Amino acid sequence: MSVPAELRYTAEHEWVSIEGATATVGITDFAARALGDVVYVSLPAEGAAVTAEEPCGEVESTKSVSDLYAPVDGEVTEINGDLDDDPGLVNSDPYGAGWMFRVQLSGGSDAPLPGLLSPAEYEELTKESD
Amino acid sequence: MPGSPSNAEDGVKPQSPALRATPLLAEHERLGATLTGFAGWRMPLRYGSETAEHQAVRQAAGLFDLSHMGEITVTGPEAAAALDYALTGTLSAVAPGRARYTMMCAEDGGVLDDLVVYRPGDEEYMVVANAANTPTVLAELQSRASGFTAQVTDRTEEYALIALQGPEAVGILAPLTDLDLGEVKYYAGYPGTVAGRPVFVARTGYTGEDGFELFTAAGDAEPVWTALAAAGAPAGLVPAGLAARDTLRLEAGMPLYGNELGPDMTPYDAGLGRVVKLDKPGGFVGGAALAERSKAGPERVLAGLTMASRRVPRHGYTVLAGGQPAGTVTSGAPSPTLGQPIALAYLAPEVVSGNGADELAVDIRGRAEVAQLTDLPFYRRSRA
B230 CA to chain A: closest CA distance, Å? Predict the structure, then answer.
């Protein structure tokens, strides 16, 4: 299971990559493995406002459906349209081609981002729930 | 984010020491399986992609460990009579070497389990029960057979069960067995050998494909499994887990106990009245109640639904007809073969027999998604 060091995480198993005032969001390798084959991802609309720790989409797999949580406050600027044709990208490349959406941070690039976990903290969490 | 286990799973952590291990557990671990707690057993959920495992069974072959299933033998001069009394079918009419799908019902007609019963010999039957129901089936068989000269024995621990399913199954098994598979017809089973080990070879399964279920001594499971895996790999055989087994049986329209069948349902509800032989001599447990139910007609009908949306109906979701509740989803999954979600649901009879004026939908977490009534099974293999 991989937990890239340059990312931050949520307790709900999303990853976040922050570049300036833009956050890119996906679900972790741990989550993708637990779900099994992802067959459909419902994403927030471009332009939609999302709120940290609130559901903004859902991920359907063979055996279950899970809410997708927004890790940060902001406005959705881009969604990964490739997932519509190939939701399996979430399994095959969760931190790359399987990314889900981008958010313009409402607090800008200097905004504090409470509640996000470090890679070490996230790894600890997955060990507990393993 | 990861969803909770489906209702078919225990929610017990697969590492829990309370779970029973099949004789093939070490093999599953070696193969890197994702394990899950299922009916008190530690079982492979998937080895890699469950969709790929599903497709392999449809197009080539899959190998399943079903050693959690219960094997109960009923033997003796009155074994046939005891089973006629204990179960809904006429097991005395099953020829030696053949098998039958049947059910055990309670006095009130509710289904206690659905079963496959093999008759290896005149005075010898093997009842194969769902893992979660094996203790009930054993206790009921013992009690129901008590007035007969018949012995009921739980042999679950002695047996492993390996299923080889898919269009390549015959070609994979034939060189490994001493049996002429052309003589092993659908729903037949004979003692023979596989890879030199004694195996009871049955042409049964739960996937909608041709294939075999192989009962071996627990100690022979690993050599038989590895021989089949090695012989089948060039033909595209892969190990397949419970996740693929569930979507395969759902496409084939086969009921799963706990979803489509249960103590509050009769065989008639599930559209399986054909397994109830009301007029067999001597009567049987549940016969009186089932005779009443057969006259009254079912209160609900098991039907197939195909979804327009990609959102998946799940167990327990409400089906709507003209916006009003009209039934409940019992099983639902994305269908790898159809490429869209499918479901089994219990619906009010008038919805199924109606003229289709009421648009059907499934309430998927607060949003009505359009559903189409679909004849069962969703998938039927083309026969060579």
Answer: 26
